[in-house]
Amino acid sequence: MRFFKKKKQPESKSNHTKGTLTFPELMKKLTASADFSTVKQSSLSTFYISYYKTLVNPEFVHRDLLPYITEKPLKSLDDIQKHLPLDGMVKTNEIHDIANKVTEGYILIQMNKEDAEGLLVPSLSTENRQISIPETEFSVVGPKEAFVESLDTNLNLIRKRLPIPEFTVKEVRVGKLSKTRVAIIYIEGIADEENVNTAIQRVNDIEYDHVVDSSYINQMISDNENSPFPQLIDTERPDRVASVLSEGKVAIMADGSPHALTGPTTIVEFFSAFEDYFLNWILASVFRLIRLMAVMFSVLSTPLYVAVLTFHYEMIPENLLATLVASRNDIPFPPILEAIVLELSIELLREAGARLPSKVGQTIGIVGGIVIGTAAVQAGLTSNVLLIIVALAALASFTTPVYQMGNTIRLLRFPFLLFAQFLGVLGVAICFAFIISHLLKLTSLGRPYIAPIYPLRTNDLKDALIRMPFSMQNTRPSLLRPEDKARMNKKRAKAKHDIED
């Protein structure tokens, strides 16, 4: 397997790292901002304190910093560093380090204003929202915690579910301007070293100035950026991340993003809701099969309608043929135009509902669908049979548990429609063959995308199209090549002894 490599881009002429600045030039740039403050403190000792007021907690300055350094004479930065009861302080004369730390929320302490050497004291003021329930991956049973925009908080949510020393976090900075903290998370001794190295290398190879969310990283490290299929699972649930880490996967998180990326992944995982593991295995398996059938119906129902009415009337049963003819008796448009107009109308309602405030969006989606659908049928612009099919197809697409795959399903209907118009059912089969061939070539962090179906991994099928009982899932997925394959002792898991025994 080869690691992902990207062609290195030439360095920009403008130096954003401030590595070539002199100290006076750096201070001139910093003081040009209205929220940067430099204060001279003269008591028993004289020193200068500089910081961004919008990044530093003012309570920290007056409560935890000034009382300690003004209570007795301190003649040097070393004296201040020894006297302050704080961790993470750095004394340096490197302009690059001073620039980076100050813009991250550190306080700069100097004995003389012209000195290039300073003591950097951490005091980042963070404003975060409270942990709330998942919105896109809501479940009736199970935990109700979702990630927030703070990377440290998100790591805490995962680590408390995996309180082991093997839980490992590698942190890098991404983005020439944003300097976004990105964490690569895995369990040492379980995750395959090749998967870990691939994820770390791809994140390090990102060349972009501003990375604000994990979705940026998802697009930049995907094996095939031109594929409509998502190649990493985007989740907002810490319990899901903890679960896949225990399988041997790798997670990627970015500061400022309430989502995590997990991989390598397979296409069947996009149709598996994490709530399946909170239900009886029989119910979970039935629900998975229902989702898969719903996806097939969503993609193929409208194209098959167009194909049959355009080329294959003989395939329609006689009893149904009369109903279809009656429904299309006064329709002036061919089936393809009728279907595209309805599909686009559904997409317009979806976009309008998603962009408007939640209460207004729900009203627009329900009322708009009823009014437009009824008016279109009464005006003779579309048949009531096709309206029912398109509405059911749209409803079926919402059963996809992962939002990114749901968007892909929405897109796939249109090429299928075009193929159905030109070649009928044969065109639908050809388009389906193109999709399958694309999926066969697709990979996720270098691993086969449609495994365990191809290449066939019979042991991994226990948690693929259906979910078998936990007692039968005694090994981790072989696709991930985990260093520790065993999840439990199979014999002990099946043995159930009463207390009398």
UniProtKB/TrEMBL annotation:
Transmembrane segments: 289-311, 361-379, 385-404, 416-440
Region spans: Disordered: 481-501
Keyword Glycoprotein: no
Pfam families assigned to the protein according to its UniProt record, in alphabetical order: GerA (PF03323)
InterPro entries: Spore_Ger, UPF0353/GerABKA_families
Keyword Mitochondrion: no
Entry keyword set: Membrane, Transmembrane, Transmembrane helix
PANTHER family membership: LEUCINE ZIPPER PROTEIN 4, SPORE GERMINATION PROTEIN
UniProt record similarity statement: Belongs to the GerABKA family.
Name of the protein in question: GerA spore germination protein
Organism: Fictibacillus halophilus
